[in-house]
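Hi all, long-time lurker, first post. I run a small reading group and we've been trying to get comfortable going from sequence to structure in the token notation. Rather than ask abstract questions, I figured I'd post a concrete chain and ask someone more experienced to write out its structure so we can walk through it together at our next meeting. Sequence below, copied exactly:
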Amino acid sequence: MSSNNAPKKQPRSRYAVLGMLSMGLETGYEMKKHVEQNLGHFWSESYGQIYPVLRQLVEEELATCESENRPGERQRKRYSLTSVGWAELRAWLIRPPEPPPPRLELLLKLSFGRRLPIEACEKLVGDHREACGRDAAQLSSIESALRNAANRHPDQPFWLITLRYGRTLREAECAWCDETLEQLRNMREEDEQPSGSAVRE
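-- Answer (accepted) --
Happy to help. Here is the structure in token form:
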């Protein structure tokens, strides 16, 4: 039975926004762009997540908000961390991360693979192999661009760490796909049914 005194679990978007505020990103637009360009291989945030979090942080005095008016433009709100916000971010950063729930749809489908023709399983794995290959190439390109950037951001070494993780993970998935495709081909060749199109029971 859970205790009433247990700390309330906060949504992770809260800490993603706190972290981006600590980098000097001041608007929801800047944060969304940063997520897409630099964090997209392991994290996602939508405007529908970012703006409510920003409002909540201001209400809790973890951030401040200033409105900026420019002629002919919509009013823009700029946010920044307070000392209390910095303290909460640092407290979260040193806590062990929560393990992600294991939900991989491809593996779930393959676990029921006996109900499919081998060719269907091969296509599932082959499509995943192509997607992982594209991701690995894209991450490698971003990594090279970061390393060769003329103006290096202070956070660059840590961005490279996350990029290498993403690239290494995708390359490992490619290797797994290659091994699995070979195994599936062997299974198909041993299948007694010439067409291999019937569902195995």
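A couple of things your group might point at:
The domain at 12-93 is CATH 1.10.10.10 (Arc Repressor Mutant, subunit A).
The chain is about 60% helix and 5% strand.
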